[in-house]
Design a protein that fits this description.
globular, single chain, Pecanex, Pecanex-like protein, alpha+beta, disordered C terminus, Pecanex_C
């Protein structure tokens, strides 16, 4: 423990202060001296030049030139030495003591201590025209310990340029006189640390997200230094020039000279604090900083969504800037145009229409450009390229269709919204109805938002307000013990969806347009940005808008109206402030819940030691919480204790490694490895496919379910846990758009640790039966929680959002194969089914005639036709072979026919072929059954009486490992389909039949039942080894049933299990976790394992803490920090594929759908007019073919069946007529005989109904299609 602490102090604390230099006792004296003198040179050189020479640009140029030459020489030599080691250019090898006169480049020892004269040296040839030989007494590891390696020429050039920039900008600030006295030395130390890190960086750095050498973190210090120095110089120049025009907002003057100089001084202090900042890891690595900065600007300034990568953030910001520039041009022109009081300029109405249309379009697009690129690439390049069947995945095509559907819909909706907005803005309605309209809109927005995002979600929670014991608005599945069907659409879900629709597309656009019209008198840039941000935010995430809007209206209209700029700007800045306040609230909730003394769980002795220090730390903790909320940094517990420190800023996607699970199967492993070592034969690798299928199910339904309110309120960055009987997954919602959600799923172990099981029990057990109140148990009111239960629920970092969330999945049953094959009678049943399955596949094969006519096969099987033929291989045994002839001590054709001839003849009756006793078919079946059993015996070590060898052989054949060792069986190589299409399926089918034998032992004695059972299993079930890629494809394609034989070798156990999967609907508990709890615990794990190097697998920070679900959250981190068994890629779910949401909002309005609707309406018009003129019928009759088969007479056409969303095809935008079933006669229209007046009246009213239907139905259809 002491040595580890000293190592952390040397390589962690001291190296972070100096930029990477420290004394390593494990390295040679030369290496330590080289590092020391290098660091002293980089520190003393600028300091001595500045102090001894007069300040001038010439001196700065000399300093930069020396630094550039110095770094170029070191990087060139280091690069060439590494290249030499890679090539291994050994010319001669001799003892170093014998070499005295050769030119030497002695670079120290081998890294483990001092050299003596007896060690060997290596002559290596450099790329020198003269062919000079240098003796290098260094190996690769010693060279890596001396200097960091840059693998490419570009990296070396970039490092030299960066070091020169650090020297130039740093010395430029010294020349400007920003530093005096001791601060000159401090600033030179900062320069030296930034330059030294380019030669020998801090590894591991406090901000490094990964173990080992992180090449990105090397450039963090110099890049931050250059940015900081450039900003200092620019702010100083701008503050002294006075050319910038200051402006005032809320009494604060921005960009004045005093403001700029103050900002410059803050940055100077910040630059001097670089050693402390990097020691505590307060600045992330460069790519994370870039992504976070661009994302925050896009979200808070332009109303963008979260991003998934630095490229995504750059693309999203550039897209927003281009749209904002376009809008700014129109807004500036409109504001500068003359305004007549009762009228609105046309250009301003155009600006309003463009603002709404473009904001709507941006809200419906993902921030990831890879999605658009994949659609473009597939449409132009990859379309039509054939793919192997077992790699065919239908999901990518569905996603591409969803993206194309969005584009086609926006092609219609954006112009339509622009025209409607233009018309409303030009009508002066927002001016004529002032000021009453503004108050009405604010009140309506507040009331609808309160009802939609507070009251309805609370009534649907499992514990509303943590007072009621049951939800008030319950789903239909709530009272069901086992869910049998997909979730039913409830009335309050429809209400929630429609209220959101009204809120997003009516109320908030009206609020923004009202403010734009009444307050557009200046500041075109602010108006454009504010309108764009607020509209995009209301389209994407309206759940928190009503709180911000209500507070803004109350604060600036009633409390402090003199502080108001304009309502639009007030709303804009309040939205930024409220997002930070929400973050602060979540952080304080997490901290207070985590350190509450009555529920603290000490995972180690350090936790008990650190607990008293949390009390005096409380004041500093609040300051840290404010700071972390302002800069979006997590608060992480130190080593899992009650002491919290802030970390570096992170984006919404707060993990920096793109770690995704790669399943190990037969498609990515060598054949020899598959046969010998059986890779991936652990439960975690094999069970990961179920989380992959769960991800696919969520991809189909998550966005629609969120819009229906089935997960409660949600915002960007929220974390949820899905818990069922065996599946426990963390779902992180990253990006929320208008009709799309990007998320990532992390699956935990099925049978987790003890700590995980305790936390799973905590989130699955109910508290409704708790009757405690303090120390007594007086009970509770009906349908209410007790005092203790209500108090306890308020002190948790999580809450139950739903208890019966239904998803399509697989029920998993695993039976121990040893218990099912323990006795010989059970093995005999399996062998019997094995033989019958081989016979079945032989008779069903389309190549049967070819096999019967094959001369090689006939020649090999000819001895079997002899009357005295006996196969007395030791494989065959009286205990397990039904056709064993104990008199002949083997298997004979006669005994085989006595047992299996009836089955052969029945199978043959389905596909007629000669099947007499001496027929070629019977001989072929006999030969294949002998071969199959001998292969099983070979794999089982000659059918040993022990169970383990039998199971080993059965598993080997199940996965396709057939070892044909007998010369009598080599005839099977005449056609490999005899093994692949007959014997291998026979082994697998026999296992399924053996499973069914336990439920109905005598049922399969009937050949008809057995044949039908095998046929049904072939059609509805996949029986395969789990390592076969077909297994994964079948699960992802929603195969109804699957069966496999699993060999598990884990933690010393060696078991064989029969895995049976059946597709069904699974019920999950949805647990909403405080997102700051997840961010903080992940940051703490990263700091503890990477920087502090705690390698204890039972460390205190992963022990269970039920109030924060500490073990489950920490287990979901990327490996090797956590240990999830599956981590999905970033996955996007679209609302267009959710059938229930389509039934509420209607389908998309696209050109194709409009064209289809017009054609269908024209057809209905023709049919309706024809029916009305001819028979007085109505449109329904004409659509039924002109007969009287109306809806009541044709119920089959309108029967609805609950079908899982993922198995339903996307609704096609075609309207088809209802016709009677094929083959049924069309019923003529019913006619009534009456007098002329009644007949004329009936005809008149029928024609009136026809015209009315023609007018109203197309209009209703258009209205339904227009609502998205």
């Amino acid at each position: 423990m002491g040595s580890q602490a000293l190592q952390i102090l040397r390589q962690g604390v001291w190296a972070s202060l100096t930029g990477g230099w420290y004394v390593d006792p494990h390295q040679s004296t030369f290496s330590n001296c080289f590092h020391l003198y290098l660091w002293i040179f980089l520190l003393a050189f600028p300091f001595l030049i500045y102090m001894s020479l007069p300040p001038s640009l010439v001196v700065a140029g000399v300093y930069c030139a020396v630094v550039a030459a110095f770094f170029t020489a070191i990087k060139a030599v280091n690069f060439r030495l590494h290249a030499m080691f890679d090539l291994g250019e050994i010319v001669e090898k001799r003892q170093a003591s014998l070499i005295t006169d050769a030119p030497r480049l002695e670079e120290g020892d081998d890294g483990s201590g001092g050299h003596d004269g007896n060690q060997h040296g290596y002559w290596r040839r450099f790329s020198n025209p003269n062919g000079i030989l240098f003796l290098v007494r260094y190996d690769r590891l010693a060279l890596l310990a001396l200097l960091d390696r840059n693998r490419g020429v570009g990296e070396n050039v970039f490092a030299v340029v960066l070091a020169s920039m650090v020297a130039f900008l740093g010395f430029l600030l010294l020349l400007e006189g920003f530093f005096r006295d001791i601060w000159v030395f401090q600033f030179c130390l900062v320069i030296a640390s930034c330059q030294y890190s380019l030669l020998k960086s801090v590894q591991p750095d406090a901000a490094s997200p990964m173990h080992g050498h992180n090449w990105v973190i090397v450039y963090s210090r110099p890049v931050y230094f250059c940015l900081c120095c450039a900003l200092i110089w620019v702010l100083d120049l701008a503050g002294r020039s006075g050319h910038l025009q200051p402006f005032s907002l809320y009494g604060v003057t921005f960009f004045s000279a005093h403001f700029l100089l103050c900002a410059r001084d803050v940055l100077i202090v910040f630059a001097l604090c670089f050693p402390i900042i990097f020691l505590f890891g307060l600045l992330p690595q460069v790519n994370t900083f870039l992504m976070c900065l661009l994302e925050q600007v896009d979200m808070h300034i332009f109303g963008g969504t979260a991003t998934t990568s630095p490229l995504s953030s750059l693309y999203s910001l550039l897209r927003s800037v281009l749209v904002a520039a376009l809008l700014y041009g129109f807004c500036l022109g409109a504001i500068n145009a003359p305004w007549e009081h009762p009228h609105v300029p046309v250009l301003f109405s155009v600006f309003c229409g463009l603002l709404l249309a473009l904001s709507y379009h941006l809200s419906r697009q993902s921030s990831d450009p890879v999605i658009l690129w994949s659609v473009y690439l597939y449409s132009l390049v990859l379309h039509g390229i054939p793919k192997p069947l077992y790699f065919l995945d239908p999901l990518p095509e569905k996603l591409r269709d969803s993206v194309r559907e969005i584009f086609h819909s926006d092609l219609v909706m954006c112009p339509l919204m622009a025209v409607i907005t233009f018309a409303i803005s030009a009508s002066t309605v927002f001016i004529a109805l002032q000021p009453a309209l503004s108050y009405i809109l604010y009140m309506v927005a507040g009331v609808v938002g309160f009802l939609t995002h507070y009251l309805l979600p609370q009534l649907r929670k499992q514990l509303p307000w943590f007072c009621l014991a049951h939800p008030v608005l319950r789903s239909r599945e709530y009272s069901q013990f086992e869910v049998r069907d997909a979730a039913q659409l409830m009335w309050f879900e429809k209400l929630y969806a429609w209220l959101q629709c009204v809120e997003k597309y009516v109320i908030y656009p009206a609020v923004v347009l009202n403010s734009l019209t009444t307050e557009a008198h200046g500041r075109a840039l602010f108006i454009s940005l504010a309108g764009m941000k607020l509209l995009r935010s209301s389209f994407c995430a309206p759940s928190l808008q009503y709180v911000t809007l209500s507070f803004t209206a109350l604060f600036f209209l009633f409390d402090y109206p003199h502080f108001s700029e304009t309502f639009l700007l007030d709303y804009f800045f309040m939205s930024i402030l409220f997002s930070k306040l929400w973050d602060l609230l979540y952080k304080l909730r997490f901290v207070l819940t985590y350190i509450a003394p009555w529920q603290i769980t000490w995972g180690s002795a350090f936790h008990a030691f650190a607990q008293p220090f949390a009390v005096p730390h409380s004041a500093m903790l609040f300051v840290q919480a404010v700071f972390s909320a302002l800069f979006s940094t997590p608060l992480n517990p130190v080593l899992g204790s009650a002491v919290f420190v802030t970390s570096y800023t992170r984006p919404v996607k707060f993990w920096e490694r793109d770690y995704n699970t790669k399943r190990v199967d037969h498609s990515n492993t060598r054949l020899a490895t598959q046969l010998d070592r059986n890779p991936g034969a652990d439960d975690n690798n094999l069970n990961s496919i179920f989380y992959e299928h769960l991800t696919r199910s969520l991809q189909h339904s998550l966005c629609g379910d969120l819009l229906l309110g089935r997960w409660g309120n949600y915002t960007t960055g929220d974390c949820f846990i899905l818990a069922s009987d065996y599946l426990n997954a963390l779902v992180h919602i990253i990006e929320i758009g208008n009709g799309l959600v990007t998320f990532q799923l992390r699956g935990l172990e099925f049978r987790g640790t003890y700590c995980q099981q305790r936390e799973v029990e905590a989130i699955t057990e109910g508290v409704e039966e708790d009757e405690g109140c303090c120390c007594c148990e007086p009970g509770h009111l009906p349908h209410m929680l007790s005092f203790n239960a209500a108090f306890g629920q308020r002190w948790l970092a999580w809450e139950v959002a739903a208890t019966k969330y239904v998803l399509e999945g697989y029920s998993i049953s695993d039976n121990n194969a040893a218990s099912m094959l323990q006795v010989f009678d059970l093995r005999k049943i399996l062998i019997t089914y094995y033989v019958k399955s081989i016979i079945f596949y032989v008779s069903r094969s389309p190549k049967l005639e070819e096999w019967l006519a094959n001369e090689t096969v006939q020649e090999a099987l000819r001895p079997c036709l002899g009357p005295a033929y006996v196969d007395s291989d030791p494989t065959f045994n009286l205990n397990i072979d039904e056709d064993y002839d104990h008199r002949a001590s083997g298997v004979t054709p006669t005994a085989f026919c006595m047992v299996y001839l009836d089955w052969i003849q029945y199978c043959n009756s389905r596909c007629p072929t000669d099947s007499e006793r001496d027929s070629p078919l019977v001989t072929l079946c006999f030969g294949l059954c002998i071969l199959g059993r001998r292969a099983l015996g070979t794999a089982s070590h000659s059918m040993s009486a022990s169970l383990e060898p039998f199971l080993y052989g059965l598993h080997a054949l199940f996965k396709g490992d057939f070892r044909i060792t007998s010369p009598r069986d080599e005839w099977v190589f005449a056609d490999m389909d005899l093994l692949n299409r007959v014997v291998a399926p026979g082994v697998r089918m026999s296992l399924k039949l053996h499973q069914d034998h336990f439920t109905s032992p005598d049922e399969y004695e009937d050949p008809v039942v057995l044949y039908d059972a095998i046929t049904a299993n072939e059609e509805k079930m996949l029986i395969s080894h789990e390592g076969d890629p077909v297994w994964r494809s079948a699960i992802l394609a929603n195969m109804p049933s699957l069966l496999a034989l699993r060999h598990v070798m884990d933690d010393g156990s060696d078991e064989y299990k029969i895995i049976m999967l059946n597709k069904r609907f699974l019920s999950f508990r949805v647990i909403k976790v405080n997102r700051e709890c997840v961010r903080g615990l992940w940051a703490g794990q990263q700091q503890e394992l990477v920087f502090l190097r705690n390698r204890n697998p039972e460390r205190g920070s992963i022990q269970n803490a039920k109030q924060a679900l500490r073990n489950m959250i920490n287990s979901s981190c990327d490996q090797p920090i956590g240990y999830p068994i599956y981590v999905s890629p970033l996955t996007t779910s679209y609302a267009g594929g959710h059938t229930q949401l389509r039934s509420v909002w209607g389908g998309p309005v696209s050109p194709h759908n409009i064209y289809t609707w017009l054609i269908s309406s024209w057809d209905r018009l023709q049919k309706g007019c024809g029916a009305g003129c001819n028979s007085g019928g109505n449109i329904e009759d004409s659509d039924c073919g002109g007969g009287s088969t109306s809806i009541s007479n044709n119920p089959a056409a309108h029967t609805t069946q609950s079908t899982p969303a993922s198995s339903l095809p996307l609704p096609q935008p075609h309207f088809t007529s209802i016709h009677p079933p094929m083959g049924e006669p069309r019923t003529p229209p019913l006619t009534t005989v009456s007098d002329g007046h009644c007949s004329a009246a009936a005809s008149y009213y029928n024609n009136v109904n026809t015209v009315s239907m023609l007018i109203t139905q197309p209009w209703n259809s258009l209205c339904n299609d227009c609502i998205l």
